[in-house]
Amino acid sequence: AQKITQTQPGMFVQEKEAVTLDCTYDTSDPSYGLFWYKQPSSGEMIFLIYQGSYDQQNATEGRYSLNFQKARKSANLVISASQLGDSAMYFCAMRSYNAGNMLTFGGGTRLMVKP
Amino acid sequence: GAGVSQSPSNKVTEKGKDVELRCDPISGHTALYWYRQSLGQGLEFLIYFQGNSAPDKSGLPSDRFSAERTGGSVSTLTIQRTQQEDSAVYLCASSSQQGAGTEAFFGQGTRLTVV
Question: Using a CB-CB distance cutoff of 8 angstroms, which residues of chain B are in contact with residue A103?
Fold first, then answer.
């Protein structure tokens, strides 16, 4: 069985500062993918970034980067230069081939950016 | 269509009535997921389709819930004899292939209110 854990229910960050959102996962499958989604108050789910288990380098997409530590089974999201529009719920998710490609989500972290 | 389409966007129903929620995935996407999200909470997995078959139905909360997918495209989630605890946003997502590295695209959701 695969499991995703996000231990920070809520976080504050000052505008223009960087913030790290934690995500740990558990799977016995050597082949898996890790995803981060953003859900603003409007409710839409927005894909942010992806990391494959065999990727040698940490994924980056603009202000988003993924701090992938495979041995520790963690895939933390780093947002640089926070903006007010970054205030939202953030979900970490995982899909593994042997789990039938089921997409499993963590409980989410609510990020609030202070002006 | 360009994205995942869900209908209706909002549904208010009386306790005990049956409801049908529809999801139109992105054309050509073989994988389709249904999730439930209560207010301010994470995503609860309901069911996953690969083509027309559902490898994993373990998330369906009770036998009042059922889902089908026809023609490898449209999916319908049916809730019979609705209860107040069924009130939530029901999200549908689709992805293009079986690989673990393919992100899922979400619809805007159906907000179900049982009164």
Answer: 33, 45, 48, 93, 95, 104
